[in-house]
């Protein structure tokens, strides 16, 4: 079944249906396709515990690894092994764990145990009680053996328990006390596999406690914060009727005033996360406290959701949004009317470069550009002086003139970034029409771009006929005439969204009407330098 509409048209909610796991058809694939994260019941965890000869990976070693693989409450497998070490165990470690030198004498070395554990845990989320300790030793072993640490961020049941379990419910957050609280079947005893088994029950107990608080996915669990009031957490039900598909969500207060606008490829999951502490910013906590309703605007795919989000923020001006509130704001550099000098203006002229954040930044960049090579700068054919200026930063630094190099770097970075935008985004904005397609699982997603703006969006099952679908999509697309300025009326943030979407996945160009080409030696090849320079400047400001 295909889905297509002009950008801006209303789309009714998609139908839903229940399927057995073994019998999920293409229709259910769409729901899984747009799920940002699988539910916790479908997430594979490997709960791991280590015994070691000391407290630091720098002067101690792993003596035992125990791990349990679980998914959906079911144990899928266990892993346990002593690890041979060359030095004798300290007496206090022997007393604590009961592990002796004799136990380790014939055990395999870490060079054999770690690869086996790595294979056992591959693709899972690692969980540990006081994960910083265990991960420190595992990562040290990984690095020493030349392996790549390819696990996602671990989950720490110590951190989670402090967020979820009130102090009044437990004597402490030690594993032994939490295992007792959650009636763990295995009592922890400072042996790796037994402690890992106990941690499994603690993890499941923690997940059960937050099951009614809007916590459905791993990111929800990571972000959950019990400091939110029960009243706020109960508001998670406001998201129950939202679609599990791409779109925009709008939080409103009890008078219907928009508070906050966001977008997601799974609207319901993302909206629910706010009621479980999914956003730790203080203003978001305030917003959630004021929210009385959440509504959604369904979209065909992520690009349409991003674009719609930007437009709604611009039109509604919700007080808790800070980004995209003024997509056309900025300063521009362009030749004067009589060609005597460059001028700084609020409105972009066809040959302008920008936008710049402040008027002073625009003035500095005008000085860097100069009028003499303006046409060559704009079409990307004469960037030699700009490249020489970048090289001068390196020369100043090599001469030990770091402050001068930093000042010059900070001046050049916005000049390069703005020019790169003209060279890469300008051709996209000036092209009459571009039809793009991306494959996502068993679905093709389509976007019709006209003069740098999304005119239509749609989806089509893989294997279906493109020609009629694309023709209908073009026929129903919003009419967008070219506007003024270097980006033909499109906004730079909107163009960046389209560019970001094209860079996310392999993108097929279905058709192009008009001209769409970028200068081969344009400033976009210098953009990496500019971004690195901006990062360095931000870091310098943080350390002042």
Automatic annotation (TrEMBL):
One Gene Ontology term of the molecular function aspect: exonuclease activity
- InterPro entries per record: DnaQ (IPR006054), GIY-YIG_endonuc (IPR000305), GIY-YIG_endonuc_sf (IPR035901), GIY-YIG_UvrC_Cho (IPR047296), Ribonucl_H (IPR013520), RNaseH-like_sf (IPR012337), RNaseH_sf (IPR036397), UvrABC_protein_C (IPR050066)
Q: Which CDD domains match?
A: DEDDh, GIY-YIG_UvrC_Cho
Q: Which of UniProt's keywords are assigned here?
A: Exonuclease, Hydrolase, Nuclease
One Pfam family from the record: GIY-YIG
Q: Which GO terms describe its biological process?
A: DNA replication; nucleotide-excision repair
Task: Give the SUPFAM superfamilies listed for this entry.
Answer: GIY-YIG endonuclease (SSF82771), Ribonuclease H-like (SSF53098)
Q: Which GO terms describe its cellular component?
A: excinuclease repair complex
Q: Where is this region: Disordered?
A: 1-20
Q: Where is the GIY-YIG domain?
A: 244-322
* Name of the molecule in the record: DEDD exonuclease domain-containing protein
Q: Which species expresses this protein natively?
A: Dietzia timorensis
